[in-house]
């Protein structure tokens, strides 16, 4: 009986640790203020669980996010924006941010097609035979909307790619959210390269199929297009 209880306790402990290790991006940060959860961020249907199939439509805005909607936040080109986390980042891996301009109202748009361009990426620090991930412990991520971004309504997409088990194909974990924003006072830039999501990533991309441990990596290649501008 004692052995059975010990095994049960161990399984509960392992499961609870695994759940706590997951997270989601539920809110935007604007003017240094955190907005209410899911006011300007589209809700998802998988709670804190990651997406692991890079060919899934859930790679776009998380599970259920392509057909969900939220309110749209007015911002200006050149402003700082951010996302908060439901928990601190507890898995190694980069953070990336994309924008996609809607052809009209973003509220009813699913983000399909080659419309996404990357505006921010945050990776590891690699030096003297070691690799470190400053993302660990972060509870938010802030970035700047490029001042050359044309005015319009956009989806803003954030992802953290957890790479702790990514030495095997299909084991990278994607924690994704999409917010809805209207960019005012925009510039006359031509954002790009434009990519489709899903479509921009392969399960064997070097930044997705990635062994963090041995041999120690000497570089990290971000998946997807380069940052614009």
From TrEMBL:
Residues spanning the signal sequence: 1-21
A GO cellular component entry from the record: extracellular region
InterPro entries recorded: AA9, AA9_LPMO
EC number, as in UniProt: 1.14.99.56
Listed CDD domains: LPMO_AA9 (cd21175)
Keyword Iron-sulfur on entry: no
Protein location: Secreted
Reactions catalysed: [(1->4)-beta-D-glucosyl]n+m + reduced acceptor + O2 = 4-dehydro-beta-D-glucosyl-[(1->4)-beta-D-glucosyl]n-1 + [(1->4)-beta-D-glucosyl]m + acceptor + H2O
Pfam families: AA9
GO molecular function: metal ion binding; monooxygenase activity
UniProt GO BP: cellulose catabolic process
Domain Auxiliary Activity family 9 catalytic residue range list: 22-220
Cofactor: Cu(2+)
Enzyme class, spelled out: oxidoreductase
Keywords: Carbohydrate metabolism, Cellulose degradation, Copper, Disulfide bond, Metal-binding, Monooxygenase, Oxidoreductase, Polysaccharide degradation, Secreted, Signal
Family that this chain belongs to: Belongs to the polysaccharide monooxygenase AA9 family.
Listed name of the protein: lytic cellulose monooxygenase (C4-dehydrogenating)
